[in-house]
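Pilot study result, target chain (261 residues):
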Amino acid sequence: MNQNESTVIYRREGAIAYITLNRPDVLNAINADLARDFLATCQELSTDKNIRVVVINAAGRAFAAGGDLAQFRQDPLSVPEVLIDPMHEAILLLAHLQAPVIASLHGAVSGAGMSLALACDLAIAADNTRFNLAYAKVGASCDLGASWNLPRLVGMRRALEIALLSDTLDAESALRLGLVNAVVAHDALVEQTHQMATRLAGSPGVALGILKRLIRNSFNTELAEQLSAERAGFARCSETEDFREGVAAFLDRRPAVYKGR
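Predicted structure:
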């Protein structure tokens, strides 16, 4: 299959991996094919130790308008197995990556599309982005980790409001709530995303991976256990070339050059 005909396009630019949702004619609605291809892509990149940043973006007018309702109508009982299971496996792979994962968002970010965006470590949104969790509008509960990620980002009451009322949020509202890290002009989204990814790719990869894991695990960890994990993480960092380079660069008053090891 021509890559442009695939439901997911995967490419590398140096240490940056790009995953592009590619069903633009249906606003990148997630069907079984896209779920399968997304999982295969995440499996591939999870074995590549040279990847230091992952960017998830989308072709066309929207990031993702949720699950494919046409498939839901045709065979609703198959959805957990053919769509949710592979996407959940992919979400876990992304969460366990050492590399930070950036969501680059535009247009509609709805339903499972919003859940996918919430699952990323960082998010940058174009000013035309509109968010709606939307599940309640079609008589469904959520998936792709929304019930885990959303209250951690915005708090319990606000999460319940977003989920139960399913009101649409514009980009600035999403920024105020902490759903995204930055809002940029639509025509600057690609460049601003690339700048963020490049900055992260030039950072000490092991340290970023440990920081990501510590922060993600902190909500489920007692303080004593978290302190122990922090000590172990710092000890691991102290063994790396990047740690020695970072300390030397600081003392020498020069920019550090990190190699991700």
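One observation from the pilot: The radius of gyration is 19 Å. A full batch analysis is planned for the follow-on phase.
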